Amino acid sequence: MKQVKRIGILSSGGDAPGINATIRAVAKTAITAHGMEVLGFKDGFTGITSRSYVELNMLNLSSLLSMGGTVLGSSRDKAFRKALLKDESARAEFRSAWEELGLDAIVCIGGNGTQKTTAVVSELGFPAIGIPKTIDNDVYGTDVTFGFDTAVGIATELIDRIHSTAQSHNRVIVVEVMGHEAGWIALYSGMASGADVILLPELGCDLDIVFNAIKRRYEEGKSYAIIVVAEGVVFDEQKEQPIGERESAGRYLSRKLREDAGIDSRETVLGYVQRGGAPSSYDRNLCTRFGGHATQLLADGISGVMVSMKGGKITHVPLSHVKDKLKLVPPDNELIREGRRMDVCFGVDFAHIRTKLEK
């Protein structure tokens, strides 16, 4: 890479607490430590080809550390990525915009889709670095993504509040949390809030095991239960149904508890509230570390990588190692092991899972 004098920064994909803190860290480090110019592109990758940007400076970076959302906006980037891969005119348009804007490199903040697009941009010869962002914590190549800690904290607080309602009405309350195909939020918020049953997409679910766990609680004299289920859990009966026709995991499970097991239950879907608001102090510091490291890499002439955390240390991994992969919860996760020792039900027969893994 030639000496980096002007960089761009963008956020793509779903929002998450900490995007603004990351923008601030990248830009402030670039300006104060390296004398770079920084352009903030609006609405993801399309902001480059549309030449829609704001020049970032110490004044407009003020107050971003604690602000939720993203001041640059965001957009899904799948169509953009497909165009770059298949359409020579799209590549020519992107190259023309890049050269016209005088860019030396781009920093792309986002989850799995964004890292995949960043890899494409890099492979086409444009210096690029990714920063992993998602509340789902499912980006491969990093121990943690920013936004995850905040989302877990929000979900935990809300589940804590639900305990009192469940206890007051002697009910089972099913709480559905976000996460797509990964159960990280369900596992961490479920364990932190003392849930009795935690269901993860990675493990699947045997409804009879769940029913029996709830009935056993009642037999022990307990009057209510909390079930935390990840949105990505698909029950056996649903697997043959088109995705658009399936009940949500929380609604389906609550209905089956009432109809098949005679257990009074209600569902609560936490939804987008998990993605909103100010980032936690942990996420603010993680964003600062991620953003500063990304800028330093560019100053050192390094690109084509994603910033990551490994063993508590900030490092980086090649984008080619990250794209097309998901980081899912393994059955032997430490929190799962501890939960099982404490009689938390995970809705599966672990002996059966162990046998499958051994095969």
Coarse structural class: alpha/beta
Low-confidence stretches: none
**What's the assembly state of these chains?**
single chain
* Strand tally: 11
Question: Could you spell the SSE succession in H and E letters?
Answer: EHEHEHHEHEHEHEHEHEHEEHHH
DSSP helix fraction: 40-55%
Largest sheet: 7 strands, mixed
Strands side by side in the biggest sheet: 3-2-1-4-5-10-11
Distance between the termini: 47 Å
Properties at a glance:
single chain; 359 residues; alpha/beta; 7-stranded mixed β-sheet; 4-stranded parallel β-sheet; 13 helices; 11 strands; elongated
Set down the secondary structure blueprint.
Blueprint: E1 6-11, H1 19-34, E2 37-41, H2 46-49, E3 53-56, H3 78-86, H4 88-101, E4 105-110, H5 112-123, E5 128-132, H6 148-169, E6 172-177, H7 184-192, E7 197-199, H8 207-219, E8 225-230, H9 249-261, E9 265-269, H10 281-299, E10 305-310, E11 313-318, H11 319-322, H12 334-341, H13 350-358
Parallel strand pairs: 1-2, 1-4, 4-5, 5-10, 6-8, 6-9, 7-8
Antiparallel strand pairs: 2-3, 10-11
Helix pairs in contact: 1-10, 3-4, 3-5, 6-7
Briefly, what is this?
By secondary structure, the chain is an alpha/beta fold. It is built from 13 helices and eleven strands. Helix content is 42%, strand content 16%.
3D architecture notes:
This protein is of the alpha/beta class and 359 residues long. Helix content is 42%, strand content 16%. The chain is built from 13 helices and 11 strands. The strands form 2 sheets. The protein has a 7-stranded mixed sheet with strand order 3-2-1-4-5-10-11, sandwiched between helices. It has a 4-stranded parallel sheet with strand order 7-8-6-9, sandwiched between helices. A hairpin with a 2-residue loop joins strand 10 and strand 11 (313-318). Helix 3 packs parallel to helix 5. The longest helix has 22 residues, at 148-169. It is elongated and about 70 Å long. The termini are far apart. The model has no long low-confidence stretch (mean pLDDT 94).
